[in-house]
Design brief:
This is Single-stranded DNA-binding protein. The protein has 163 residues and is mostly beta strands. The protein contains one helix and seven strands; from the N terminus they run ββββαβββ.
Length: 163
């Protein structure tokens, strides 16, 4: 039995374009900031206000490649992951601490910001992507190639869904 649970679910918008870096072993790592907002009414003034929280997000491997390819500043995503804390030394030798969300599952919400066309909303997990293709009949006329659709990735974790 697990001694604890470390699970985060966020829906928000990217505050900046994903930045990709490759480790020495070739593993891709993407980082970006994610804004989540909550609207509320101030009890004293009755005025509607919005409170925004910023989260540092890290994605690894295939999920990192998908994010780097399809996400841009302003993209809306659903993200599942876990909270991690780490420390590092800055250029002046001062120890700094950072809290990050390590993403494990991601679903893009809304349209593709790189294209005006409506495209499928891909889901991505830490698993290998499995793009789906419709079979073509041999007699069908060939159309010019279009921009590739975002890969659709899914894992049957239906018993783990929070809703």
């Amino acid at each position: 039995m697990a001694s604890g649970v470390n699970k985060v679910i966020l829906i928000g918008n990217l505050g900046r374009d994903p930045e990709i870096r490759y480790l020495e072993n070739g593993s891709p790592r993407v980082t970006f900031s994610l804004a989540t907002s909550e609207d509320y009414t101030d009890r004293t003034s009755g005025e509607r206000k919005t409170m925004t929280e910023w989260h540092n997000v890290v994605l690894w491997r295939r999920l990192a490649e998908i994010a780097e390819k399809y996400l841009r500043k302003g993209s809306k995503i659903y993200l599942e992951g876990r909270i991690t804390n780490r420390q590092y030394q800055d250029q002046q030798g001062v120890t700094r601490y950072i809290t990050e969300i390590v993403g494990q599952n991601m679903t893009m919400l809304g349209g593709n910001p790189r294209s005006d066309e409506a495209q499928a909303r891909p889901q991505a997990t830490g698993q290998q992507a499995q793009p789906s293709q419709a079979p073509q009949t041999p007699a069908a006329p060939q159309t010019p190639p279009q921009a590739p659709a975002a890969p659709e990735v899914s894992v049957d974790d239906s018993d783990d869904l929070p809703f």
